[in-house]
Amino acid sequence: MPELPEVETIKRELDKAILGKKVVDIIVNNAKVIREPKKERFIKELKNIVIKKIIRKGKLLIFELSSGKDLTIHLKMTGQLIYPGNGKTSRVSFKLSDGKLLDFNDSRLFGELKLVDNWQNLKFVKELGLEPFDLTENKFKEMLEKKKTKIKILIMDQKFISGIGNLYANEVLFRAKIHPQRPASSLSGKEKGLLLKEIKDVLSEAIHYKGSSVDQYVQVSGRPGEYVKYHQVYDRENEPCFRCKGKVKKIALGGRGTYFCPVCQKL
DNA sequence: AATGGGACCTGCGCGC
DNA sequence: TGCGCGCAGGTCCCAT
Question: How many angstroms separate the CA of A114 from the C1' of C6?
Answer without folding.
Answer: 32
